[in-house]
Structure formats: C-alpha cells, structure tokens
Design a protein that fits this description.
single chain, 226 residues, 12-stranded antiparallel β-sheet, 43% strand, elongated
Length: 226
C-alpha cells in the first residue's frame, strides 16, 4: 500500500479512486460505495484475491470526524450497517448482495482516514488452499496469500520451523530448480536472524525476507512482473 502523495498527485489519485469507488455496480460486478464530498484518496488495488477471496481495496481522507462518517453511512444504508469500536478505530460493515463492505475508520475532530474494502462472498469453497503453486518447506504454514490482478503480482507470508539460514538455503536450492536465478546481491550466515534474497526468471522478479521469531522463521515473498 502506497503512502499518500504530494497534494497534486493526491488530488489526481483521489479523482481516480472516486471514479472507481462510485462506478456503477455492473462495472466488474463490484457494488458502488458513496464517498463524502471533497474526500481525497487513492486506489490500492482494483482487484486482488486475498486467501482465495476476491476483493478490492482503497483508502481516503475526509474532513468528517469518525462519528460524522458513521452517520453518513448509516443514512445511506438506512441504519443497516454494523458499527464496531476497536480502541481508536471504528469498523463500519455492510452486506450488499454477494459483497461485504468494510470501512476501517481512524481519526478525530479534525477528520478521518479510512481504508475501504469490498469482499466478494463466495458461493463455494475455493478449489485450492492459499499458497498453492508456491514452494513451501515441510511443516510450514501459509499465513496469507494475496494476488494482485490489476498489476500482476503476488505476496505470500508463511511461517517455517526452520532457522533463518535453513529456510534461506532451502529456497535458494528449490527456486534454482524451478529456473529462478539468484541475483547475487544477498548472503545469509548460519547464525543470522534476518536475511533477504532476490531472484529473477524471465520477466519475473521475486524478493524474499526471512525473520526469526521465537519458534519459527517468518517468510515474506513478493513476486512481480517487470
């Protein structure tokens, strides 16, 4: 997710986000979600699949306080939205047909920052588990698997009982077997608790981070096309 940009670029991206978020429901079958007047924001992903669930994500800023924003959406959805408070956050949730809409609201009297997610409710179980097709060490666990359909790419987070070095070496050997070429810019020592790796295959680029936690190594892999 990209930080808010300079005022000029933020305004331009805000127009794009407003156009996409308020587009008619038939555009990609995503429901329309109204935004407050003068909201500024940007699209994070117009179509992504997170743990096999299709969704789209945007974020915006508004001069409305969180309470005013809750009122805005309750009026629009005729009091049918569910509002939950988590510390300094308010989560507004509403189901519209086969989609579930959530707004994660933070802010105060000076205004609010909001992350807006629209999730498609699946009518059947996905045909494969998260992490499918990506090499995984034995006894590892996939935490999240996100595929970006608008800018083709994928980010996978998993945990492995291996040490940082063992996991780094396991992927180096396995990925080379699959045709990936080590970029030669990273090394990992036997006692390391943090390591990085980079690979290329044709027009694909794969970057990886390895961080040792208490009982496992946390691995994050990002695969993109150039």
């Amino acid at each position: 997710m990209h930080p808010f940009r300079s005022p000029a670029r933020a305004a331009a991206s805000g127009v794009l986000a407003l156009m996409l978020l308020t587009a008619p429901a038939h555009a990609g079958n995503w429901p329309s979600v109204p935004l407050p007047d003068n909201a500024q924001g940007e699209l994070v992903s117009s179509h992504m699949v997170h743990n096999n669930v299709p969704m789209r994500v945007s974020r915006f800023q508004t001069a409305l306080s969180p309470a005013q924003l809750v009122g805005f959406y309750q009026r629009h959805w005729k009091g049918q939205a569910k509002v939950t408070e988590f510390g300094d956050r308010r989560i507004i949730a509403y189901q519209q047909g086969s989609h579930f809409i959530t707004l994660d609201v933070r802010g105060g009297s000076a205004g609010s920052e909001v992350q807006l997610g629209i999730t498609e409710l699946l009518s059947r179980e996905p045909g494969h588990p998260p992490g499918h097709g990506f090499p995984q060490p034995e006894r590892s666990q996939v935490i999240s698997d996100t595929r970006y359909q608008d800018t083709p790419g994928r980010t996978i987070a998993l945990e492995s009982p291996q040490s940082t070095y063992q996991a780094w070496e396991w992927y180096r050997a396995r990925l080379q077997q699959q045709g990936w070429k080590d970029d030669g810019e990273h090394r990992c020592s036997v006692i390391a608790t943090q390591c990085q790796a980079g690979y290329q295959r044709g027009n694909e680029v794969l970057t990886m981070t390895f961080n040792r936690a208490a009982q496992h190594t946390e691995i994050v892999a990002t695969q993109m096309r150039r």
